[in-house]
Design goal:
It is a single chain. The protein has 26 helices and 25 strands. With about 950 residues, the chain is of the alpha/beta class. The chain is elongated and about 150 Å long.
Length: about 950
């Protein structure tokens, strides 16, 4: 059924016009919430400040004199003036790592020698018969054991025998040295020369087999520092094993594995010569690496060069000649300070927290979203605004985290623009939330859930070189882990840069395979693009109470306004129509609707065809039938009033008409468009004043109307004029009220603003749900005049509990009870149809009540008493049985017989009609 006036219907504002309206509103909203935004932006600054304070406190503790390089005042010129000289010679072992070493020491290569009480001996747990008896531990002369295996036993034993020279007390060059002291992170000052024992390993020891070892460190041109240590001879014991598995088993038995009761049986080392011969040297070396990773998580040097040099020399001596490893040394280094870069260590988690706390930026509450939707707001503009504009608001907040971190010392060594790019690629989820509180809660869950999981779980996988890279990439598909990985890599490069004084991450580092940043960037870029479309889809499907069919993307997008059509509702077939067939006005309305559905054109703006809404039962409760087969037709220029008790189904009916819920069966046509399939176009002709005011508390009345006016395609002077006219019509223009924030409005002022919003843009259909609630009499009268003028050339559906309002505004009324329409007509018709009697009221003493009732019975035998209390009685008297003159005459006679305090005779009011219809309908539905 075509709509004859479809061409004159309001036109939808263009996408960019609506996006502009949304952007203007959001900017104003953010400006009004400047305090909250400042707190949000300052949050990362507070975190950075805490980092700086913590860093300062830690630096003060780390740079105390006890940890600085030792210094002494020395008279270098002999003139009595001293010069402060700092160096290793004046430092303790704790101070030495911070000293300058322009000429590092040349250390002889050392073995990691087991202490005497830990050397391998024969025992119950280590039952190898060729090991020495454990009695040697009492005398402290247990040898150190070297295990040998290989394909050629003769070659292996020959090489082992030539490793250690015979006793040579005067020749330290050929000595094999070792120490039982623990190593450190560097070898600028090996602990072997200041603590522990220094050993000279020989094939056998004699009474005079000690060697003095001396090393020298040039501190300055005029000062040097010498170390002289006496070695202790220890004999070597070379033992053959048949296979490498036997060696591995003995080593496993010898070293402690967390069992305090296990006896140590440590070996010096082991060699597997494999297939070595005169032309091929192939060897595996076992060594003690149990101390390289200590309890503080730091990696220390391993004394391995001496073991490799020893076996290499033995092979060369046997077949080629001899090659000596003279010394090992570190690179020169300047003076350093002991520092812990807390910013780089904790910056990852702190910036992660700072970014996620902004996840609720730009999230609209559900009610406000639906208000904009029902005021001619294109869903595409709203969805893309939420997916794009809110994303950039979030990214801006992330930038603030980055900027604060930059000024607080975090990421100082990294390229700033890389971090900005990484922030931009991180997707957000505000489009998935319709409530600010929900978004905030989820944001904090992401912080303390994903952030902590990243720090304590995901980071361990990143640092484990043996963990498959494919699984790392799979875990990074979760956006939180991808973000954490990027921040982690920045922290690592920044930490390294701060330690070495070099630059951190640069663009060239993104292609490095070890940091995985290229994978992170690609993943986050793809996720950002994908989540934009997913956010749009989710917003379309779940943006309102009804939403769209999840398969709607498979349908072809309509580029033109669909042609109007009507057809009988499928809901009538097979469904019971809950209408009292004795009510001719309701039956007549239904027949009118059926006739309109068959006509090719119509001037009716609203046609409801057997509209029905049933809410399913939950928690053991039966289903609730809110609307029972409603048929109704409204022409343009008519204001239809819906009366009914609370819970009658009025709001459910309006919710279906404005698209918040879908009908169970039946349908309705607004300006010829079906609300089930063409709701997007219905919005262009519709205005809504909801039952509860849905306003932005920080926006003014003028800003509200400007926003909704732009959504209705108003521009320039016409927009300004429409806003001012709307404000004047609802008495919100004078006295600066228009520019006052809505949060400071009274309840009545908010209702007037909601009415103005529903009427701006000249909608063809307007729904007003109790618009005058909370208004004072003067404001209510002014609002009634506004609605009365507004109904010209538009259809208005108005719900109210005020009979006075209904009688003043509405051309027709419908009384709605228990989900069904009980009667339809103008106020005069309803009073005539349901109020064919006078209401007689008289107040006397209680003793005279019987006399009053007898007088009424004489006047009207069919009178019905409807009220009685404390001498006051009320009767309904059929008009055809009495005349007004008879009533006055009877009252005058009664006054002469007994005292009459008050009396009255009135015609039936609309309120009486409402009560009568409602009570009879409720009784009918109880019986059915």
């Amino acid at each position: 059924m075509a709509d004859s006036d479809s061409d004159s219907s309001p036109q939808t504002a263009a996408f960019w016009a609506q996006a502009d309206a949304l952007l203007r509103k959001n900017l104003t909203y953010q400006k009004r919430n400047i305090n909250a935004n400042c707190r949000l932006i300052s949050f990362p600054f507070v975190l950075c400040t805490l980092l700086v304070i913590t860093q300062t406190l830690v630096d003060n503790q780390l740079n105390k004199n006890s940890r600085k390089c030792g210094c002494r005042c020395i008279d270098t010129n002999g003139d009595g003036t001293c010069e402060t000289v700092c160096g290793l010679q004046f430092s303790s072992l704790d101070q030495s790592p911070n000293c300058p070493v322009p000429s590092p020491l040349k250390w002889p290569p050392l073995f990691q020698v087991p202490a005497p009480q830990y050397r391998s001996v024969r025992s119950a747990s280590n039952p190898f018969t060729d090991l020495p008896d454990e009695s040697c531990r009492q005398t402290g002369n247990c040898p150190v054991t070297i295990l040998i295996t290989g394909a050629n036993q003769t070659l292996g034993q020959s090489l082992a025998a030539s490793m250690f020279s015979p006793p040579s007390p005067l020749n330290s060059t050929n000595s094999v040295l070792g120490s039982d002291s623990l190593t450190k992170q560097d070898s600028f000052l090996d602990p072997a020369f200041v603590e522990g024992s220094l050993y000279n390993i020989q094939s056998q020891c004699t009474s005079n087999s000690t060697v003095n070892v001396s090393v020298s460190l040039n501190v300055s041109k005029s000062s040097s520092f010498n170390f002289v240590r006496e070695t202790v001879c220890v004999a070597s014991l070379n033992l053959w094993r048949n296979s490498s598995s036997e060696i591995n088993d003995q080593i496993y038995r010898g070293y402690e594995k967390g069992n305090a009761e296990r006896q140590y049986n440590e070996i010096l080392g082991a060699y597997d010569f494999l297939n070595s011969n005169a032309n091929n040297f192939n060897v595996n070396v076992w060594y003690n690496a149990t101390n390289k990773d200590t309890v503080d998580g730091q990696y220390y040097l391993v004394r391995l060069p001496g073991a490799i040099n020893l076996v290499s020399n033995a092979y060369l001596k046997l077949f080629q000649g001899r090659m000596e490893l003279e010394f090992i040394k570190e690179m020169p280094k300047p003076a350093t300070k002991l520092k812990l870069d807390i910013a780089s260590l904790l910056g990852t988690l702190f910036l992660y927290m700072g970014c996620h706390t902004a996840i609720s930026c730009g999230v609209d509450s559900s009610g406000l979203r639906e208000t904009t939707k029902t005021t001619n707001h294109d869903e595409n503009a709203r969805a893309w605004r939420r997916a794009l504009l809110d994303d950039f608001l979030y990214v801006f907040s992330c930038y603030m985290c980055t900027i604060h971190g930059r000024f607080c010392g975090i990421w100082l060594t990294s390229r700033f623009e890389i971090l900005h790019t990484e922030r931009l690629l991180h997707p957000i989820f505000s489009a998935f939330f319709s409530n600010v509180k929900t978004a905030t809660v989820v944001g904090y869950i992401c912080v303390f859930g994903t952030g902590l999981l990243g720090g304590f779980l995901f980071q361990a996988f990143i640092e484990d070189a043996s963990f498959p890279k494919g699984w790392i990439i799979f875990m990074e598909l979760y956006p939180g882990f991808a973000l954490y990985r990027g921040l982690y890599e920045f922290a690592e490069y920044s930490l390294s840069g701060n330690s070495l004084g070099t630059h951190g991450m640069k663009w060239g580092n993104l292609s490095a395979s070890e940091n995985g940043m290229s994978d992170v960037m690609i993943i986050m870029l793809l996720e950002w693009i994908a989540l934009l479309f997913i956010a749009y889809y989710v917003d379309q499907v779940f943006s309102s109470g009804s939403g769209k069919n999840p398969k709607y993307l498979l349908q072809k997008f309509r580029k033109k306004r669909p042609s109007s059509f009507r057809r009988p509702s499928l809901g009538r077939q097979g469904s019971k129509v809950f209408v009292d067939m004795d009510k001719p006005d309701v039956v007549q309305e239904r027949e009118k609707v059926e006739q309109l559905l068959l006509e090719p054109t119509t001037s009716h703006s609203i046609v409801c065809d057997n509209l029905r809404k049933v809410y399913p039962g939950r928690d053991g409760n039966p289903e609730k039938m809110a609307v029972r087969g409603l048929s109704l037709a409204l022409p343009r220029g008519e204001c239809f009033g819906m009366l009914g008790p609370n819970g009658a189904g009025k709001t459910s009916f309006i919710s279906m008409m404005i698209g918040l819920t879908t009908p169970t069966t039946g349908t309705a046509y607004v300006e010829g468009l079906d609300i089930r399939t063409q709701m997007d176009w219905v919005y262009t002709s519709m205005g809504v004043c909801p039952q509860h005011d849905l306003l932005w508390e920080t926006l003014t009345g003028r800003e509200h109307l400007l926003f909704y006016g732009r959504l209705k395609n108003l521009k320039g002077a016409s927009l300004k004029r429409a806003v001012e006219d709307s404000l004047r019509s609802v008495n919100l223009f004078n006295g600066g009220v228009a520019d006052k924030q809505a949060g400071k409005y009274s309840g009545g002022m908010k209702r007037r603003l909601s009415v103005a919003i529903s009427l701006i843009g000249d909608p063809k259909v307007v729904y007003m749900d109790e618009p005058s609630t909370g208004l004072d009499p003067a404001s209510r009268s002014n609002l009634w005049n506004v609605v009365k003028r507004a109904k010209q050339d538009r259809a208005i559906i108005l719900t109210t509990h005020s009979m006075e309002e209904a009688e003043y505004l509405c051309d027709r009324l419908g009384i709605f009870v228990d989900g069904s329409l009980q009667c339809v007509g103008n106020p005069k018709e309803l009073r005539g149809r349901y109020g064919g009697s006078y209401v007689f009221t008289m107040t006397t003493s209680v003793n005279d009540e019987q006399e009053v009732e007898q007088m009424v019975r004489r006047l009207s035998p069919g009178a019905e008493k409807t009220y009685e209390m404390a001498g006051t009685q009320k009767f309904e008297m059929p008009k055809q049985e009495i005349s007004i003159a008879d009533v006055f005459e009877a009252v005058e006679v009664a006054k002469s017989k007994f005292p009459v305090y008050a009396w009255g005779l009135s015609d039936t009011t609309l309120e009486d009609v409402f009560i009568k219809v409602a009570n009879s309908a409720q009784q009918f539905h109880k019986l059915t």
